[in-house]
Amino acid sequence: MNKLKRITGIFLAISISMTVFTSAVFAADSKSTDGEYLQSVIDLIKQKYNGNITDDELLQGALKGMFDTLDQYSAYYTPEEFEEFYGSLEGAVEGVGISIELIDKNLIINKVFANSPAKKAGVLSGDRIVQVNGESVQGKELNEVVSKIKGTAGTKVKLGLMRQGTKNMITLEMSRAQVDLPSVHYEIRGNIGYILIDSFSQNTSKGVSEALGYFDSKKITSVVLDLRNNPGGYLDQAIAVAQNFVPKGIITTLDYKDSSMEDKKFYSELEKIKYKLAVLVNENTASAAEILTGAIKDTKAGVVIGCKTFGKAKVQESLPILSDDAYDKFNDGSDKKSANAYDFNSYTTDLSGWAKMTIGLYYTPNGNCIDLKGIEPDIQVKDLTLSGIRVNLLEPMSLTVKPSLGTHYYDVLNAECALKLLKYNIGTPDYILDAKSVEAIKKFQKSNKLSSSGILDFTTQRLLNTKMSEIKQKQDAVYSRAVSELLK
After folding, report:
1. Among residues 43, 275, 329, 423, which is most buried (max CB within 10 A)?
2. CA quadruple 116, 119, 124, 129: dihedral positive or negative?
3. Domains annotated on the chain, with CATH
């Protein structure tokens, strides 16, 4: 299916800081001199500017500036920028399936996605990237290296990696492919099903259905839905998730600015509530996540716990903007001119870029607009930090290598956080396994009747992961309150 057709009617609700303009954007009722005025400014730049600039670059800059003046959620993307943005929401990207973080000027792989080319080639979490296709990445910006690794499915890329326990660089070749990026993570904790949704991408409702199916098979009827730090995403995915929990009736209403667009109401057909539900929110729960939260709160489908949400009820739509030449071609002889490529069924080679623009507001089932207000939870509980650590954001160790003294490794941070929460003296958690951390590991190993080597071997990592899971369940104040509510 054509990508643009898939986007039609899908409303984006993630804020990204980019910007735009084009002579093609002028409405029919604009002053006729506007175009002449802007052209004169362009001519002035070309006459006086002591540097190199093309007409296309000036046009792109003007487009970025125009959409940037609308609101913080509206933006203009070049085709390349839009491809990257859309891919992040699509739930899949074309690449090798790794996530990279810049740590102490080193490019460290912090996650290798399941069934990805990188996973199959033997790339491990914690590997340090030193080369891409034989070219050193020393001193390169993170985005520059990522762009070199990503690419069209079927093409090949070679990564030069330094790995814990090896002295020489490892070179691994892999074929790029479309890689699924899961947005839903779930597990059973005792008698409670826990679902964490990172954002609402194209695969979110599928992931939630998979989680609920797993819970059903284990006869789990109490569910915690964690939407903390969820910035939003696709409206249709939030609606689809809501239909699993919200009883029959309205989920949300969209009110459009454009009078030619009919306001929409989205419904649930759920005859009977199946799960006892608690929803966890915080100040970073926004947009599509607030649509879901508002529907659950207003219909009393569950209890909302945490602190007031972000407060974004603005809805965005992505519109394809014709290039300057295409605008002239398609509007030739027309009285009412348009820069919207959707009006001409021209979606591929005739675009200047894409405009993500605020087009309306959404309302909760009770008719509330929470924009700039947020949603007050049913039960107020602060997301507390323990020893400066956000407990709910802790990640388990990956069980890929065995860090020893002096190791720079992603899992070291997770281990040190767990040890600090267990009251071992390790100072400030970082990515370096120093002498203080080794001593803490020895004490942890000894107290748990393990070999006191000070090395983060797999047995030690597994035990720390178990302890970390227990900490999450007992010391995450918001989650703990949800459990007590569900067990009433």
Report:
1. 275
2. negative
3. 92-180 (2.30.42.10), 184-315+361-380 (3.90.226.10), 391-487 (1.10.101.10)
